[in-house]
Amino acid sequence: MAQRLALQRLLALPTRGSLASHGRAFGTSAGRMSTFNVQDGSDFQDRVVNSPKPVVVDFHAQWCGPCKILGPRLEKLVAKQEGKVLMAKVDIDDHTDLAIEYEVSAVPTVLAMKNGDVVDKFVGVKDEDQLEAFLKKLIGA
């Protein structure tokens, strides 16, 4: 009986944790909803390649210091676009196949995609002015 209770508690922890993290990652504000984590190749195809809106794809890794600087900066600027552009986050350790397919050789690598095609790209950290110019070019503003 004690083992069953311990097992139930152990199994319940990830569920609570994942729900909490989804709540933070997918909040109700328009800006937060414009950023999403890619789950798999099919999800990438549906939400990025087939997107009617332009998509910024952030290829990153948990262990990457520059990614931790660029990611939040880019998310903030995408949120300012009020839904004109989406942002997909792709962890290269979880989605090696996508990193290979899109020729990602270093992180962070950011792709600008429109109608399923890569129209622009940069590698490394950029300042806010450069990121704004990158986004404006993508959305045609």
Describe the fold and architecture.
The protein has 141 residues and is of the alpha/beta class. It has a single domain, classed as Glutaredoxin (3-Layer(aba) Sandwich). 50% of the residues lie in helices and 20% in strands. Helix 4 (65-80) crosses helix 6 (128-139). The chain starts with a helix and ends with a helix. The relative contact order is 0.16.
Give the strand tally: 5
Order of helices and strands: HHEHEHEHEEH
Described by its quaternary structure, the protein is single chain
CATH architecture: 3-Layer(aba) Sandwich
Straight-line distance between termini: 63 Å
Order of neighbouring strands in the sheet with most strands: 1-3-2-4-5
CATH superfamily: Glutaredoxin
CATH class, named Alpha Beta
Number of domains: 1
Protein name: Thioredoxin, mitochondrial
Domain Thioredoxin: 24-140
Organism: Prunella himalayana
Keywords: Disulfide bond, Electron transport, Redox-active center, Transport
Compose a concise summary of this entry:
With 141 residues, this protein is of the alpha/beta class.
Question: Which tags fit this structure?
Answer:
141 residues, alpha/beta, Glutaredoxin, five-stranded mixed sheet, 6 helices, 5 strands, globular, disordered N terminus
Fold topology:
Layout: H1 2-25, H2 30-33, E1 35-37, H3 41-49, E2 55-60, H4 65-80, E3 86-91, H5 96-101, E4 109-114, E5 117-123, H6 128-139
Parallel strand pairs: 1-3, 2-3
Antiparallel strand pairs: 2-4, 4-5
Helix pairs in contact: 4-6
